[in-house]
Amino acid sequence: MASSYSQEWRSVCDKFRNAQTLSDVESRKDPENDPFRSKYKARDLLKEIHTVLKNFDIGEAQNDDSDAEGQTEEPVDGGKGEANGRRCLGDSNAGIRAAKLGVIEYFLGVNHVETEELSAGEEHLMNCMKLLEKCTITQENVSLCIQARNQLGILWAGRDEIEKAQGFLEMAENIYMRYMKEDGQPPMDLTDFFVGEEDQLSQQERTKRFEMAYTHTMYYLAQVYKNLELFEQAGKYCHSTLQRQLEFNQFVPLEWAINAATLSQYYITKTRYMEGRHCLAAASVIAGLAGEVPSEAAAQESEVEYDKREQLRQKRAEIARCWIKYCLNVLQDAKKLLEDNTGELDIDRQTELKRARRNEEEELERERKSTVLFSSSDTFDSICALEDKVSCVFPLDFEEARAVFLVGQNYVGQAKEYFEMDGHVTDHIEILQDHSALFKVLAFFEEDLERRCKMHKRRVDMLEPICKELNAQYYLLVCRQLQFELAETYYEMMDLKLALADRQDDLDAHTVKKFNHLCGLSMKYYEMFLDSTRTPEGKFPAKLEDDLLRPALVAKFRVARLQSKLISASPTVQLENLGSSLESYKFVVQYCEENPEAKGAVETELELSEEMVNLLPIKMNRIRAKMAAK
């Protein structure tokens, strides 16, 4: 091989360095009408290097043949080479030559992919792999082998050939594992082949770049497993990727934080609240490393400061929203654990769970020690301190639930600072709905019915103004959600007032008026929801869409119940109310008769409706009989 110090070899190294600069630096300045200008210049240089290397190969191969005449060719590692791909056969210079050509093929492949010439890119990347197929796990080649497979994995994933991508990436993972087991020394970086000895990377930098390549493998595998709906594996690889990025200091704070917060949502769906909380605490702490949010005044004076301010505020608000979901899900899952078949707190179950809590806490501590935690010397204490502010075990009484609720409510405030109604309508409303849901589930733990009713009133106060303000023409789905939730909230308040009334011997006029008022408001919003499903001619659809089927029939069922609950001293008004109720119950029954597939969606409501269709006429006849007797 030509000497590293020869003029010709120096020229090759200079061209390689220039190609790298063109591709990585100058390409960012390319004009919009010629976006790949620097990439094409880099490609030309890489092709020139490829030609020179091929010429070197011809001369060196002849020398090798002459030198090897009369010698027996043996693997340099004592016979294990071809069997396990660890060493190349013959002169070790052959491996170096193959690696240098492989590096150029690799960069040509990446260049073509980046310029949207995928077939040519694939061809060069496959050429790279063929050059190294007999010596994949050496210090010279292992990093190149992994990175070539990473790029092929990305390429095939981009073509929606996910299983092909999976094959390349899993092979890259296997190569890394074998190398670390069998050697583990810092391997050569791709750039080491085209610099003088004085410019080669340090062992520390080689290790960092090699580990970064493998971190990319894990990141891409996480995406592949997600696309294959192997969510447990995807979560595992995503967690490991984030851990490695921290360990090797290879992360952008905001990007890392958002990925960790997103991972927390996966853990939440699996009720793995310890891991979910840890991800969120880490996300909040690492996001803080991105710096302080520039003031509004500074943002107005500088476009750079404005962009930084917007990005920091948005990402931190997104993390806050993930915290809200964490708190809400902890409370909702605790409610499911504690409620009886009527939806009320099961006291016996609560007592049993509290008794078991002591053993659970010991188990959780053991689990925590076995959980893969995000840690670095600078952030671990801060992450732990933030975790301690909210529990990861299910609250079992009002005080414990309130502690989780207050954390969630604090993050509601943070999220709303960025996602304001002006400019972020849908996001703002979703945050309000989560806030409402926090109050709803907290009310479950409250034993005092009056205080519970006040919590539902808070929900009304935050949602009703928005519902009145929104234009249903542009926000139909959101309006429906708000109408239904307001109807449900007033319905729950009515039920609470009914329970309080049952404790009294006589109902005063104020209580009756309040009760009827709540019934009327609940019916109003249910009817608004139902009206939104009507045709332009005002007719109720003969067949409801799947996503509206249950909500619409439940709304009609509850309107029927509300109409029958209205209190009036006038028998004539009572008959009118019961008649309206009967018609609403009949609607539910008739719809299910005409659309049998609907029965499964409203099984309980249908059964009660059929019962009331039979009972209400009897009740109405009794009222008529009393009126006639007078």
Automatic annotation (TrEMBL):
It is found in: Cytoplasm, Cytoskeleton. Keywords: Cytoplasm, Cytoskeleton. The keyword Cytoplasm applies. The keyword Glycoprotein does not apply. Residues 77-87 have a biased composition (Basic and acidic residues). It holds the Pfam family KBP_C. GO terms for cellular component: cytoskeleton. Its main location: cytoplasm. Residues 62-76 have a biased composition (Acidic residues). Residues 58-87 are annotated as: Disordered. It comes from the Eukaryota. Belongs to the KIF-binding protein family. This is KIF-binding protein. It comes from Coilia grayii (Gray's grenadier anchovy).
